[in-house]
């Protein structure tokens, strides 16, 4: 079982500097709601390997990833762990309060989350109907992650799966890296990528190496890949 | 064995690797039914995959499997390419759903295929269904066909469980079944496996073979123990020459009688238990730290088409001629003949020939039989509730007879098979099986003896 993070929450001075604000839950809040958010939400640092949500345990907060990344996983009926997705800045976890989380969310690196107790969200919703729906419709939640995953697993070559995965991460956290280039961080271990893509580690490594050799990846290191910008670029 | 149990030895009992067994499959189930069930498989549903390789170099006269002797390797290549197409047909239906947790290569002789072909099949599975490093790969091997470096290459592919068809080490017995393989050959295969880091080696032994004697079988068991396999399966040879013509090559006169069969089975049991193996179900033995033994200790043992297993996947997908699949209450079997199988694959059809859709009653019976065989006890209330009242009375009457003979005891609705009677588990299971009663006036010619 993943170790639960227990860093004391710190309340931000202001949300003004929040890097993800424009594509987070808060972007949909009016000034009055926003003032309440500032009073009620909390920000927490999560160390690498620590969990914000653990499978089977209760959860009463909505989390927004502000910085860093998380691995979503669940234990299947047969006792094995399945990597079901990754969370990046702007993504949500814990969309509903539950007595038993369906999955575990562990930090892949030093990360930061904001969290909102569901009880508070309901209070806000009473004043401003539809806030919860708007936020769920807007961001990437665990349900979107499941959609992403089945699309990836339905692809019939290792190369397609790997390329689609790189695009997926690029859309979430890719950044320009000079003219015509994008830097795509890969904060997760290769084994997690392989498990997520339904590939054996060796197949993943072989596929990445071949893409690099053919010049379709400009560069490939343990924690990032450099690709061309633009559509159909790998 | 208690004298009052002898009458059960002559009973012909299904192996119950599925319920209902494949004998009751018919053409009422179509490939469309199978396709529908495949489409309903859930995103991360654990899958257990089976790949059937129906080729052998030589004919073993005892064999009851779907196989053919083949000397032209190009025919095997044709089969491998058909397998890849079948895997892709099923993969199209799953569309990314389901995750293989184990892949078992059986036969016939899987290592009739060269390692390159086996790697190709695994790759097709990886691309169609996803195959991760924690999936368990197992393969049955004919020691006579193991080529230089095969074991290392199979281990590199990720096979961590290897099963050797030993049957019996005695040369006279080997001649009588047309499967001659020296102790040195098996010993060197085991050595290679150990050096390659394979720590789940399984031997299949057979009792009830022609020319078997207690003395010689004891030596075979000593040789088995000397090689210290991690698991041993001890199966009773089923002599059914009218259903399996190739078995007519075996001289019926040289087969051990019912009493000797029991003595051989008991000798194997005593020696394996004395050597520290744990008894698993009614015909498997495993070292205490083997995953099968751990599963048994923790009450997780299951029975699937391959026998007793620690594989928890309920959904089984079989590939190749005659392979059986089970998805959410539907069992189907592929075309048995290669011609029929190839025709379907060429036409882009799932090669389903027959099957059965389980009724609610059959699902209840299947669950109770699973518990009886795997745990030695079962709560039979679900079956009594599911069957017609008259049938429930008959089931109870049959169980009362088993109780009177001391095979089972009762605790409320729980039927407990006595430890000594575990080898007769299938007879207890049969008491709950409407297929075996009431229309059973004479022993079936297609079922094996209980022991």
Give a quick set of tags describing it.
heterodimer; A: 234 residues; alpha+beta; Jelly Rolls; Arc Repressor Mutant, subunit A; 4-stranded antiparallel β-sheet; B: 451 residues; alpha/beta; pyruvate-formate lyase- activating enzyme; 3-stranded antiparallel β-sheet; 21 strands; 37% helix; globular
Explain the overall architecture.
Chain A: One of its GO terms (molecular function) is DNA binding. Chain A: Keywords: DNA-binding, Transcription, Transcription regulation. Chain A: This is Crp/Fnr family transcriptional regulator. Chain A: InterPro entries: cNMP-bd_dom (IPR000595), cNMP-bd_dom_sf (IPR018490), Env_Response_Regulators (IPR050397), HTH_CRP (IPR012318), RmlC-like_jellyroll (IPR014710), WH-like_DNA-bd_sf (IPR036388), WH_DNA-bd_sf (IPR036390). Chain A: Pfam families: cNMP_binding, HTH_Crp_2. Chain A is an alpha+beta fold and 234 residues long. Chain A has two domains: 21-141, Jelly Rolls (Sandwich); 154-228, Arc Repressor Mutant, subunit A (Orthogonal Bundle), CATH 1.10.10.10. Chain A has seven helices and twelve strands. Chain A has helices at 31-40, 118-127, 131-138, 142-153, 158-173, 190-197, 201-213; strands at 42-46, 51-53, 61-67, 70-75, 81-87, 92-93, 104-107, 111-117, 175-176, 181-185, 219-221, 224-228. In chain A, the strands form three sheets. Chain A has a four-stranded antiparallel beta sheet. Chain A has a four-stranded antiparallel beta sheet with strand order 2-7-4-5. In chain A, strands 9-10-12-11 form a four-stranded antiparallel beta sheet. In chain A, helix 6 (190-197) crosses helix 7. The longest helix of chain A has 16 residues, at 158-173. The mean pLDDT of chain A is 85. Chain B contains 15 helices and 21 strands. By secondary structure, chain B is of the alpha/beta class. Chain B has helices spanning 6-9, 31-39, 73-94, 115-129, 150-157, 171-177, 183-195, 214-227, 258-274, 291-297, 338-346, 360-375, 381-386, 389-404, 425-430; strands at 12-13, 46-53, 55-56, 68-69, 99-107, 136-141, 159-167, 200-207, 231-236, 278-280, 284-286, 302-304, 307-309, 315-319, 324-327, 330-334, 352-357, 377-379, 408-411, 414-417, 448-449. In chain B, the strands form six sheets. A nine-stranded mixed beta sheet of chain B has the order 10-11-9-8-7-6-5-2-14, with helices on both faces. A three-stranded antiparallel beta sheet of chain B has the order 15-16-17, with helices on one face. Chain B has a three-stranded antiparallel beta sheet with strand order 18-20-19. Chain B folds into two domains: 21-319, pyruvate-formate lyase- activating enzyme (Alpha-Beta Horseshoe); 360-449, Orthogonal Bundle (Arc Repressor Mutant, subunit A). At the A-B interface, strand 5, helix 4 and helix 6 of A face helix 4 of B.
């Amino acid at each position: 079982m993943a170790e639960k993070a227990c860093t004391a929450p710190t309340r931000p001075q202001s949300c003004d500097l929040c890097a993800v604000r424009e594509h987070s839950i808060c972007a949909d809040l009016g000034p009055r709601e926003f003032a309440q958010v500032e009073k009620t939400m909390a920000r927490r640092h999560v160390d690498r390997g620590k969990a914000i949500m653990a499978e089977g345990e209760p959860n009463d907060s909505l989390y927004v990833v502000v910085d860093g990344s998380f691995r979503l996983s669940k234990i299947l009926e047969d006792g094995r762990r399945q990597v079901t997705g990754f969370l990046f800045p702007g993504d949500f976890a814990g969309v509903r309060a539950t007595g038993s989380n369906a999955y575990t969310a562990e930090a892949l690196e030093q990360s930061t989350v904001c969290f909102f107790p569901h009880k508070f969200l309901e209070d806000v919703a009473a004043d401003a109907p539809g806030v919860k729906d708007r936020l769920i419709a807007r961001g990437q939640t665990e349900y979107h992650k499941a959609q992403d995953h089945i699309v990836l697993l339905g692809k019939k070559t290792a190369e397609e799966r790997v390329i689609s995965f790189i695009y997926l991460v690029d859309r979430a956290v890719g950044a320009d890296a000079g003219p015509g280039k994008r830097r795509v961080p890969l904060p997760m271990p290769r084994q997690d990528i392989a498990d997520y893509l339904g590939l054996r580690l060796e197949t993943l490594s072989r596929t990445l190496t071949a893409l690099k050799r053919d010049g379709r990846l400009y560069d490939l290191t343990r924690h990032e890949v450099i690709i061309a910008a633009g559509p159909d670029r790998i | 064995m208690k004298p009052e149990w002898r009458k059960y030895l002559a009973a012909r009992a299904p192996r119950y690797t599925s319920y209902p067994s494949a004998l009751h499959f018919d053409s009422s189930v179509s490939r469309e039914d199978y396709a529908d069930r495949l489409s309903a498989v859930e995103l991360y549903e654990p899958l257990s995959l089976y790949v059937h390789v129906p080729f052998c170099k030589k004919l073993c006269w005892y064999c009851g499997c779907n196989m053919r002797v083949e000397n032209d390797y190009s025919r095997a290549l044709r089969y491998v390419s058909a397998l890849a197409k079948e895997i892709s047909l099923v993969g199209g239906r799953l569309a990314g759903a389901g995750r293989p947790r184990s892949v078992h290569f059986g036969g016939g002789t899987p290592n009739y295929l060269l390692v390159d072909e086996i790697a190709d099949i695994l790759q097709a599975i990886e691309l169609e269904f996803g195959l991760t490093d924690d999936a368990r790969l197992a393969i049955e091997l004919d020691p006579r066909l193991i080529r230089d470096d095969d074991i290392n290459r199979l281990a590199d592919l990720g096979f961590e469980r290897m099963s050797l068809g030993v049957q019996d080490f005695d040369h006279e017995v080997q001649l009588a079944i047309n499967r001659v393989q020296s102790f040195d050959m098996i010993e060197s295969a085991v050595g290679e496996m150990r050096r390659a880091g394979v720590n789940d080696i399984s031997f299949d032994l057979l009792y009830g073979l022609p020319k078997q004697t207690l003395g010689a079988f004891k030596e075979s068991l000593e040789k088995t123990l000397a090689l210290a396999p991690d698991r041993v399966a001890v199966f009773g040879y089923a002599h059914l020459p009218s259903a399996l013509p190739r078995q007519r090559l075996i001289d019926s006169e040289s087969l051990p009688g019912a009493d000797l069969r029991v003595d051989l089975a008991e000798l194997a049991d005593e020696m394996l238990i004395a050597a520290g193996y744990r008894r698993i179900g009614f015909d498997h033995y495993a070292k205490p730290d083997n995953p099968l033994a751990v599963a048994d200790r923790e009450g997780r043992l299951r029975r699937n088409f391959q026998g007793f297993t620690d594989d928890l996947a309920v959904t089984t997908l079989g590939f190749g001629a005659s392979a059986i699949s089970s998805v959410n209450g539907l069992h189907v079997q592929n075309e048995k003949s290669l011609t029929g199988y190839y025709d379907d694959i060429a036409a882009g059809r799932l090669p389903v020939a027959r099957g059965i859709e389980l009724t609610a009653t059959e699902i209840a019976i299947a669950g109770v039989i699973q518990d009886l065989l795997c745990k030695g006890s079962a709560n039979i209330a679900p079956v009594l509730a599911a069957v017609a009242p008259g049938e429930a009375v008959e089931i109870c009457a049959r169980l009362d007879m088993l109780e009177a003979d001391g095979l089972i005891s009762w605790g409320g609705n729980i039927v407990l098979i006595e430890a000594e009677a575990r080898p007769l588990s299938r007879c207890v299971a049969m008491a709950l099986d409407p297929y075996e009663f009431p229309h059973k006036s004479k022993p079936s010619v297609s079922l094996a003896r209980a022991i």
